[in-house]
């Protein structure tokens, strides 16, 4: 079932406005990318991100998702990034270069406001207009959030980018340490004991 978004003035990019929606769903292009690829079709390193050659979704849709998350509770920018990453099971995390301009636009269009600020760290809350926008688009937003959950469930745990990153960090740290010619027998014993202990703890999770 397709849901239509009702975008407030200022939500669309110019290229979004020119993009036809006929036969392509309510977002101007398939949710999963330019060719409609599902997230399990490509790995995290595939060009264009983990969801194929296109973006995860268009900018206007991302703005509504960000607005919906802020309407749930006031959030900082980095909290929004983490929330989206968690809701997709680590399958997708928007970059700071995407989220912070989105927050700026939402603020400029009166959808959110700064509740408090410490230096560059701003806590955003939804305005009455923003909450009205969320309610007007509730069904469509819920459909996107459902896709988030689906994206996370489709991914095999060992391919989770968070685990991949952690394993690579461990490998790099171990390689740099063991390549040192100054390691003493006691240090080698300590490293081996630490790795064995880590393995046991992982098995117990």
Automatic annotation (TrEMBL):
It comes from the Bacteria. Residues 66-135 form the Transcription regulator PadR N-terminal domain. InterPro entries: Tscrpt_reg_PadR_N, WH-like_DNA-bd_sf, WH_DNA-bd_sf. Residues 1-51 are annotated as: Disordered. Residues 10-20, 32-43 have a biased composition (Basic and acidic residues). Gene3D superfamilies: Winged helix-like DNA-binding domain superfamily/Winged helix DNA-binding domain. This is Transcriptional regulator, PadR family. It comes from uncultured Pleomorphomonas sp.
């Amino acid at each position: 079932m397709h849901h239509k978004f009702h975008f407030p003035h200022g939500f669309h990019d110019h290229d979004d406005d020119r993009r036809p929606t006929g036969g392509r769903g309510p977002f101007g292009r398939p949710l999963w990318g330019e060719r409609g690829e599902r997230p399990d079709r490509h790995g995290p390193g595939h060009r264009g991100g983990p969801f194929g050659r296109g973006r995860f979704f268009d900018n206007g849709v991302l703005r509504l998702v960000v607005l919906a998350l802020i309407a749930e509770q006031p959030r900082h920018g980095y909290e929004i990034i983490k929330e989206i990453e968690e809701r997709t099971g680590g399958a997708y995390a928007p970059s700071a270069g995407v989220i912070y301009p989105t927050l700026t636009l939402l603020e400029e269009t009166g959808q959110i406001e700064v509740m408090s600020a410490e230096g560059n760290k701003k806590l955003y809350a939804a305005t009455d207009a923003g909450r009205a926008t969320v309610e007007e688009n509730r069904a469509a937003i819920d459909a996107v959030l459902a896709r988030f959950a689906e994206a996370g469930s489709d991914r095999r745990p060992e391919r989770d980018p968070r685990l991949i990153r952690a394993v690579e960090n461990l490998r790099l740290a171990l390689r740099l340490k063991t390549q040192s010619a100054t390691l003493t027998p006691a240090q080698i014993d300590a490293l081996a004991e630490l790795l064995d202990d880590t393995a046991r703890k992982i098995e117990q999770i």
